[in-house]
């Protein structure tokens, strides 16, 4: 059984929890506690609003994000001419590799964004985190498409990679903001 949380002496933004084995960070405590744990936001009535505001809501948010972003990435790659149904010397990806890339982007970036969203309460901090995730995804896309032959320059591919990631993440964020109230008030 773990005790009350206290501020970590070296990292003021991280709260530590005392356990029989010593102090552990709030992140590890969230992962180790029963039911996924994590910090839950409470409403004005004192109750828990939604599992989407804790680690237990991660699978739902991940699936929703993938349902939005994977087709959006595939459409963007198709429109940019970066993927086709059959391999081509001037197309960096096939449909299968584009789908794999889109899924892997979410598999890498979504846990990082979820961690930031649980840790930071300020909208400004969350927007910065979302922007960082979009930049990370754009750079990962560029790393894949720049290694394959194509007709565009590297600078062009970098610009389109970043723009695609920012566009897809903005779409996902907007749809999430529209759907979130309905999911929280269930």
Structure report:
It is a single chain. This protein is mostly helical. It has two domains: 5-32, no CATH class; 51-184, no CATH class. It is 58% helix and 9% strand. It has five helices and five strands; from the N terminus they run βββααββααα. The protein has helices at 26-32, 58-79, 95-119, 123-145, 154-184, and strands at 5-7, 15-19, 22-25, 83-84, 93-94. It has a three-stranded antiparallel β-sheet. The protein has a two-stranded parallel ribbon with strand order 4-5. Helix 3 packs antiparallel against helix 4 (123-145). The longest helix has 31 residues, at 154-184. The chain is elongated. The two termini are 31 Å apart. 22% of the residues are buried. The model is unreliable at 1-11 and 13-48 (pLDDT under 50).
For the sheet with most strands, the description reads: 3 strands, antiparallel
| Strand percent estimate | 5-15%
**What's the tally of helices?**
5
Classify the helix fraction into a percent range.
Answer: 55-70%
- Residue windows where pLDDT falls under 50 for at least 5 positions: 1-11, 13-48
The end-to-end span amounts to: 31 Å
Outline type: elongated
What structural category characterises the helix and strand content?
mainly alpha
SSE sequence, one letter per element: EEEHHEEHHH
């Amino acid at each position: 059984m773990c005790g009350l949380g206290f501020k970590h002496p070296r990292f003021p933004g991280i709260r530590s929890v005392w356990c029989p084995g010593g102090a552990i960070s709030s992140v590890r405590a969230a992962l180790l506690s029963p039911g996924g744990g994590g910090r839950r936001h409470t409403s004005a009535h004192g109750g828990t609003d939604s599992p989407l505001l804790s680690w237990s809501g991660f699978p739902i948010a991940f699936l929703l994000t993938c349902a939005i972003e994977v087709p959006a990435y595939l459409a963007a790659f198709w429109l940019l001419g970066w993927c086709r149904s059959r391999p081509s010397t001037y197309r960096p990806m096939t449909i299968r590799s584009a789908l794999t890339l889109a899924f892997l982007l979410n598999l890498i970036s979504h846990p990082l964004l979820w961690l930031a969203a649980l840790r930071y309460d300020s909208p400004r901090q969350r927007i910065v985190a979302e922007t960082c995730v979009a930049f990370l995804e754009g750079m990962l896309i560029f790393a894949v498409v720049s290694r394959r032959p194509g007709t565009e320059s590297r600078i062009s591919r970098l610009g389109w990679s970043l723009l695609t990631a920012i566009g897809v993440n903005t779409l996902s964020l907007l749809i999430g903001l529209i759907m979130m109230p309905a999911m929280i008030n269930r």
